[in-house]
Amino acid sequence: MDAGGGKGNVAAPRSRLHGQTAPPILFMSLRIGVETAMLRLLIRFLGLLLLAGGFAALIVDGTRSLAGDGLHVTPLSEGAADLFPAQMKAFRIALEEKAPQIWASIVFALLLAPLSLTLTGLGGLLIALSRKRRRAIDYPLR
Asked: What is each CA distance from 110 to 64, 80, 114, in whole angstroms?
């Protein structure tokens, strides 16, 4: 006979008190906690990558500015077109066809933002959002 009492390969989890079977809700809440922690880790990692990319773009802009004897700032549209040329062209065509007012007023203005500032801001925002919230009881008494 197997360890699960004849119910297959998996033994039913037992609690420490009185040898009773633990409720499945307890294990589901632990699993949700692990999934939340993994998602938080992934968001923080993505934020750190964006932050590093923002600093790299800042160094590239600074180097170009020193070499060219003038201020050079790479816009977001140029950086996105370098990384994703086909997708940027398709995005522009689709948005101009469906909503030309949105392209002319909002999206075009956002694409003129500096690449380094945009990546650094998004990375910092993701890192700030991935922080674990403190409960009121967790605050230290000082």
From this structure: 22, 12, 9
How would you write the pLDDT of the chain (142 residues) with one tens digit per residue?
445 455 555 555 554 555 555 555 555 555 567 778 888 899 999 999 999 999 999 999 999 999 988 999 999 999 988 999 999 899 889 988 888 888 888 888 888 999 999 999 999 999 999 887 766 666 666 6
Please give the model's pTM, rounded to 2 decimal places.
0.67
Cα distance between residue 23 and residue 50, in whole Å: 42
H/E segment holding residue 118: helix 115-129
* CA nearest neighbour of 82 among 93, 74, 90: 74
Of 18, 21, 52, the closest CA to residue 127 belongs to: 52
State the burial class of residue 67 (Cβ atoms within 10 Å of its Cβ: 0-12, 13-18, 19+).
exposed
